Model the fold of this input.
Amino acid sequence: MRAVSFAVSIIFMFLIEAPWCLHSQSDNTASGPSPEAVVPSLAAAYEHYFPIGAAVEPQSLNTQGDFLVAQVSSLVAENAMKWDHIHPRRGNDVSSYNFSGADAIVDFARQNGMLIRGHTLVWHNQVPFWVFRGDSGTATRAEVLERMREHISTVLTHFRGKVYCWDVVNEALSDGGGTWRVESPWFKAAGDDENGDGIPDYIVKAFEYARSADPTARLFYNDYGIEAGEKLEKAYSLVKALKEKGLIDGVGIQGHWSIYSPDAETVRNAIKRFASLGVEVQITELDLSVYRWGDSSSLTALQPNLASQQAARYGALFKVFRDEAAVGGDAPSSGHGKLSGVTFWGIADDHTWLDSFPVTGRKDWPLLFDVDHHPKSAFWAVVHW
Ligand code: XIL
Done:
C-alpha cells in the first residue's frame, strides 16, 4: 500500500511541481530514479512517523537554506547553543551572553514552520574555563552549581516557547570502566552524591534547574555509544533514576555510527529498552561514516561499493525507526515511550564534522546528500520502502 501511494505521489509531484521538491542533476551512486527525477522531501515522507531534523550552523542558512526547508522539519544548532558560543564571558548580564547565532537559527526555523531542538546545556566540551575558576584558584562546588543554574535559567527563559526540547546533560557516562566521566570538569566540581541517590549531583541539579526554568520543555539525556554493551546499561540506569524523580522526558541516542556498525537490530533493542522506561527516544546526531572506527586511512572519493553499503545500512536503520516510531497520535507527550525524532548531524556531505573528526582533514561522506546537495543511494533507501 505504502509503495503504491508513494508511486502515486511521485507522479503527482511531477505534475504539480510541489515547492518542496528539488530537481536532482546527478546521482552517480544512485540505484534510484533517473537523474532528472524530482527529489521527494524526507520530512514529507516521514511526516506520519516523526520529525526529521538536521544540525546547522548559522552560515548553513545561506549555503543550505532552501534545501533545508525542502528536506527537514526540525533544526538543531550544531554549535551555536553550546556554552562557549552563547555565554562566552563570565557574568550574568546581557554583555556576558551572545545569542546572535542561535537566534538566527531559531528565527529561520520558526519562519519556515520547523521545530527546534536545544543542544546542549551541560557538557564537558565547549564550556569556557571561567565557569570552573574562582577569584583565587578553583571555583567552589557552590559557585559552579550557581553558574550552572543561572546559565540554564537564562538560556531556557530566552528560548521558552521556541525550543521544544533540550539535551540537558550531554555525555556524562564513561566509555570504559566505572560509570561516570570522572575527568569532566563538571564531575570534578560537583560530581559527588550528597543526597545518596546514586547520581552525581551536577546531573540531577541540571535537570532540576531546567525543569523549573521551563516546565514546558521536554528534557533529554544525550550520549553516544549507548545503543549497546555496558554503556547501554549505564544509560538505562541513569535514565530510570531520573525518570523516577520526574526529571526527564527523553533519551537521545546520538547515532554517530559507521556503515559497518552497529547493525539495525542492535539499535532496535536499545530503542525498546529505553522506551520501556516510558521516556521518548530520539536519534539526535545521525551520520554513518564510511570509515571503520579506528581506521585512519583516507579515501579520495566515495567508492560505489561503500555507497551501496551505506544505502543498505541507512535503509535497515530507517526500517527500524519506522517500526519503533510514535505513530498514530501516540504522541511523545502521552508518556508512551517511542521513537519521536531523527536528527542528522548535518544534511549533505559538503558540511560534516567528520571531515575533522576523528582524523583531521580527511574527507568523509556520512549523510544522505552529496557535496552538491544531490541525493545519494542512501537517500533513496530511506525514502523508498
Ligand atoms: C561537534 C560539532 O559538530 C563540531 O563542529 C564541533 O567542533 C565539536 O562538536 N557529540 C555532540 C556534538 O554532542 O555536540 C558534537 O558536535 C559531536 C559529538
User: Anything to note?
Assistant: The chain is about 35% helix and 15% strand. The longest strand covers residues 280-289. Residues 1-30, 328-336 have pLDDT under 50 and may be disordered. The pocket of XIL is lined by residues 78-79, 170, 254, 285, 353 (CB under 6 Å).
